[in-house]
Queue: 2 jobs
Job 1
Amino acid sequence: MGENLVRNIISRDESIVVWNRSVDKVDALVTETGDSVVKASTIAELIQKTQSPRSIILLVPAGKVTNEVAQELFGLMDEGDSIWDLGNAHWDTTLANQKLAQEHGIHWIGCGISGGSEGARLWPALMPGGEEESIRRMLPLLEKIAAKDFSGKPCVTYVGKAAAGNFVKMVHNGIEYAIMQGIAEIYDILRYGNMSQSEMQTIFKELNTGFLKSFLMDITVDILGVKDADGSDLLTKISDKAGSKGTGGWTVEAALKLGVPVPTIAESLFARWMSGRNTVFHFPWMGTQTETINNPISTKFLHDTLSLVYLGAYLQGLDLIVAAEKEFQWWINLSEVLRIWQGGCIIRSRMLEILPIFYSLPTTADASEFIGSIKTMLDNTSSVLDKLKIPTPVIGSIRDYFMTLSVEKLPTNLIQAMRDSFGAHGVKRIGSDISESFQWK
Ligand code: 6PG
């Protein structure tokens, strides 16, 4: 990632002083790129070869290594300099590092970066948070290396104060988990309909249009076409035990901390953990093939189901960002977050054009037809579910999410009565704000 970012920066006719623990990597870069890369053999030399107010970009493993390098930098840098952590750290870690750095008069910028290693090389989406002046000083460079949004503006902005950047990047990953699981469940539905992978690829190409046109759908179409050495479909050979570096879990933790429902993001995280099948019990029918669907589900129904997964994942993530802004007052501008996610990042999709409308923000596309079709999409999603005998935790969750948002009465009045019955916690009559307790026996 670090080398790719250096290559991106120098490809924009910028020069950069580079230190790496493996000095030979820097030598190779200097040999290849000439005087755009200035080598620093030590961190002290890195400081000597840069002028204050410096912006030092850290792209080293999070945790121990970052702390060690940071401590050395604190002792060498001047007041007013800034350290840019692009390691996608936990937002709590960034708050702690900002406090440490401030003791030395140094600004710690937690900058989310999205788009994987290819993104870093070509066109990442960048989400910096922290001291505003330090960020604005770096924006001209970041705008050169960042991806472009639908209108051609760079996918980078001053996300907000303190740990706003890492928080927004974390939520980005929570949304990523939910959408990836939703796509995987559509793939499972097609597989359950006994489709060949090339037939599935055709369906996904058809689905990858309109508001669903997106990076994750693009790579799914590509993946479905990849063959193993023997000419068979490689995907069928891949273990179904899913990994995760933790960012989805951080999102659910933050939602619990702030009291924000993110059921679909949570289900997608648990789906990854469930794939490990760490339960002790071996169910007797385990491994038997589920029945196949005789009449495959139409692309229209699948499109509607996936549209609700994308919409629900975004809304749950954005609600979390809104709650964080209310709690921490980091000056997060939701319009800007939705704009910089339009390019470079993993969750980029055309649907981002209409999402502002759900937060009463200006939008560049007409959402009325899409909003008007949500009820039909919900009916179609339910009809898809009725046909299935396979686990679809995200699709099931998204159906219940939108059902919960759309029905007038929920059964939680009975929850209130039960709480009052055994715990005298009080209930409120409909339309009243007065808490009363009743004898429920
Ligand atoms: C990105 C990605 C990236 C993430 C990997 C692995 O925006 O480029 O989100 O930051 O770390 O996708 O994440 P998980 O291991 O948590 O799936």
Job 2
Amino acid sequence: MRLDKKNIIVTAAAQGIGKATALRFANEGATVLATDINEDRLKDLKKENDNIQIIKLDATNKNEVEAFCSTVDKIDVLFHAVGFVHHGTILDCDENEFSRSINVNVFSAYLMTHNLLPKMLKEKKGSIVIVSSAASNVKGAPNRFIYGTTKAALNGFVKAIAIDHVKDGIRCNAILPGTVETPSWEGRVNMAEDPIQARSDFIARQAMGRLAQPEEIASLATYLASDESDFVTGTLNLIDGGWTL
Ligand code: NAD
């Protein structure tokens, strides 16, 4: 019960890292509000743990986010996992793709934090955990031009919030995974010209020779959400099986 009495909002909670984290947070005693754009999959999450409250939310939609946040009374932790992977170099990324990735990966983090931070400030305590990526300013990954750019922006976002609110009881940290076995990763592998080769390439690039499981990311998230990490802010936490070694 490492998160007893914590009110936590999780975004992108319908599958992958967000889902594993919502389930783990609930098992650690937190009151979890799980949000996602995909309502059907949220209902599947609810079937796995009926204590989790589910709410359909497009984290890039200003009106929806504002309306949702106005219903939130007290929040201790925001775990923000919304993200989209565009495949390709700068030459494959047109203006629409550029804007889409900025919108989904960066603007969503801004909207959620901008609307929830005042509630944390009122309590003089709060933990914001943003899911970034090792593919960012930390590691150049091939064909991840706009993805890496947006994740590098999120790393700056985390540092900025951490320093601006360090005296206010607010902590803000990033999780930087390597490759995690999630439905969207499966989708990317299956779309490759040679899915078998793509799968083994993804596995080989992590020095440990395997992918992460979403539950392993949830373990780190639990630490950053809990009071055990009360002295930790502005950190970029790699969890990448040695990919960046
Ligand atoms: P996923 O792609 O499997 O699931 C993403 C979830 O986000 C889906 O349930 C989807 O419905 C939801 N979503 C998409 N757009 C949304 C929006 N506008 N509003 C609300 N919900 C929305 O996710 P994943 O692979 O677990 O990745 C989660 C996060 O982790 C992302 O930010 C991703 O960039 C990051 N990440 C993933 C990996 C990996 O290998 N899977 C590696 C590093 C970082």
